[in-house]
């Protein structure tokens, strides 16, 4: 079967849809949304970080840009969420391109610090941009009965596809997450992926062999950034409130790094595994242990996995089954 | 890298992960609780930036719970709390309230501490159509216009403006002409400054400086000098704890000719900072909610509540604010009002409870409370205090009257506003 | 005339502030700049030292700077321990930098939680006779005021930087440290155990946290999570100055301090972070190894 993976994707999407139609406790949509968002973010990060070896510390910057593009569009003309996502993706991609132009000539650690600097600069700009609320933040009211192409998507009284905005957002996030995984896998198996790996192993050698390193790195950065921007765009509608510290939170940068690493950075499955595992642990911890011990658990988990399973969980499984 | 996992292997990993994930979450769902308790659920900032206030608030809330249970509880049933740490991160809030309402099946929800932590819970509350009491949030209901939301913050119907209106009255005695405004780049401070600007314009003041500073600023001396170069009569500051401390220090070091300094400096009400800054605070004119001055007997029970809190901190060795003036009475009050309303209505009917709260003037530890249409207080009762007679860094002097004299409102004042530099 | 006074004061304040930043970054300059260990927990360890200083000051009334000196050996030992762990699990297997990074992230969280559980989340300050006062002078009709707490930071930081630079240049271990950064194999061929050199160097870098922590609590109020504010700053300073150069770090710290001070004074403090980091990006665009970095860009 040629399109085994694609069929698998559709099946998972279908499962997500059925999940939203079941009358299950709404808490699972919230937790699920958070986890799926991280699946997308980790996968996006891994395209540049795992395949190419260029560590991006500025994940929060791209996410924040996505979120605030969405906010600006809502303020401007009450844009629908699909438009927000597309435009946010484009803008984040453009930012990825421009920052890539300047910093991809730098190696390793310099690139990482430059991305961190970028995130801070972006956050400062947003802080001073009063149209989207500036540092004070802004409240977003989601539309009561949104429609897409004339079909009612959400209606609390029934008669639409979803009963509740959160179910819709959950499904949307599932769709985006699956999309990003598909993109990552396609890259991994194709020329771009091989080129990125060559760069990761030894960039000079790759250049000597004629690999167009700058072009490949830029492509990866643009795709990675665009996906992150799209993930960020859904955020304001989910939270109904955004302010710069939330949109540009350091937690995103840390998790987008930790999750692929725990899962395994060399394949598309790694970030998925890592984000589902760490994401679930975090969500559960918030509503159970719920105290400063949360942080302790994450810290210990991080140290543990990174010490015991150097190639991530996936790598560990693979080694066991050689 | 291009090593294929056998599809069965891949499938096994993913399936087992999902199974583990699902089991984890369901395993932590609480078993059926004792039937006869009333559960109140909320998120609270126990770690993160607002934890200093959040932890105080939680202790105040626990004292209320113990008090009401001693009197027979709510509707004859004992009250029980179910709360989670939101880590001062708004992102965690919706999930927490969804769990509280849908899985923990709490009977009532109240908010966490602070505008940003209340905002993401609004749609969840609205969706479930439940009464929602808010603690120290500004204008959370402005866009939603939810009729079951009520707020404990004595700022009045227009919170941002009402917050500082008393402060501007207190400085009228100096007949000022110019004003400099500085705010932290964060929600509460920015809102305060916007309100202050409106008040300043109403008072006919000319704005000679209007800037924000990033929350991580380490050194404020350049900012204070820049303000001084404009020679303002009034220096209004809206800041968060670390900024408040930094500015008080910087002003002590650089000096200023302004006639009045202060306004909306959060954190100066916290014990750690009061003791740490000591005499540098003399002359600062700031907002406050409750201080140990004799005229505050207007708040029946507040003094007693604070004593109990202070004892609790000592005896249980709690790592929270030693004095508890800032949040404890209000955290007690927002639950107290809910409790009074529920007991008056006689059953768990959120519509009826909301209507009752709207039309009633409550008597609580923070005095008389009445709510307007948008859930905010009908009158502004922020008090204005001036720090005076601080001799050293001893915390105990702040627990006595005479150090934070009340300048406004008129009916409870214990001192007159003096020029900033005359007190240093 | 007033403009000049304002400008000069801003420059002066900027240099003092730069001194403070330098104190925070100098340990990292060794750990990260010379040894390639991405110790992202560095600012949080400094906060830990700040709390220790607070304890000594609160309970025994010891002057903060003296307290800082007293706890320095503690952090040296801590550094030895952390590096041994790090070496055992990561460096020995030449793991990629990313894994070491995760280790230090984990350390950051663990340290923060320990502080929250021990000290609580409230803000702390120290008191000393010179805090809250400034040194004033009138020169050419212009008034200058330097707060003592920033002056203290500047003096101590400069002393640390000069001391470390001398150590690296003159002492055996110091030169071995620079050598291990350049060529580990050659060093071991000369009979020196590179691992021990690195361990001592890392411990040295971490020992600066003692004094840096004391300075931190003198300059700003602290609480357990405050270290996160400085992560961006300290790494930016080390990178801007160039990896491997202590004097570079010092100068970079001054540049960023002055930038923040001048922008705050004349353009509005809100823009200060953007300007500081834009400077970093700008420098990296033209000189990818930082101002004084050695040619090795790995």
Shape of chain C: globular
H and E string of chain C: HHHHEEHHHHHHH
Helix content of chain B: 25-40%
Q: What is the CA–CA distance across the termini of chain C? A: 49 Å
Tally of separate helices of chain B: 13
Low-confidence stretches of chain C: none
Any idea what the CATH architecture of the largest domain in chain B is? 3-Layer(aba) Sandwich
Strand content of chain C: under 5%
Q: How many domains in all of chain B?
A: 2
**Poorly predicted sequence stretches spanning 5 or more consecutive residues of chain B:** 1-5
If you had to describe this structure to a student in words, what would you say it looks like?
The complex is a heterotrimer of chains A (322), B (424) and C (298). Chain A has 322 residues and is mainly α. Chain A has a domain at 39-250. In chain A, 73% of the residues lie in helices and 2% in strands. Chain A is built from 14 helices and four strands. A two-stranded antiparallel ribbon of chain A has the order 1-4. The relative contact order of chain A is 0.18. The mean pLDDT of chain A is 85. By secondary structure, chain B is α/β, with parallel strands linked by helices. Chain B folds into two domains: 3-154 and 306-369, Response regulator (Rossmann fold, 3-Layer(aba) Sandwich); 159-288 and 388-423, Response regulator (Rossmann fold). Chain B has a seven-stranded mixed sheet. A five-stranded parallel sheet of chain B has the order 2-1-3-4-5, with helices on both faces. In chain B, α3 runs parallel beside α5, α6 (159-170) crosses α7 and α12 crosses α13 (350-359). Chain B is globular and about 65 Å long. Chain C has helices at residues 2-34, 42-60, 64-89, 97-119, 148-170, 172-182, 184-189, 194-219, 227-241, 246-266, 272-286, and strands spanning 134-139, 142-147. In chain C, α2 packs parallel to α4 (97-119). Chain C has one domain (2-286). In chain C, strands 1-2 form a two-stranded antiparallel sheet. In chain C, a hairpin with a 2-residue loop joins β1 and β2 (142-147). With 298 residues, chain C is mainly alpha-helical. Chain C starts with a helix and ends in a 12-residue tail after the last helix. At the A-B interface, α2, α6, α7, α12 and α14 of A face α1, β2, α3, α5 and α7 of B.
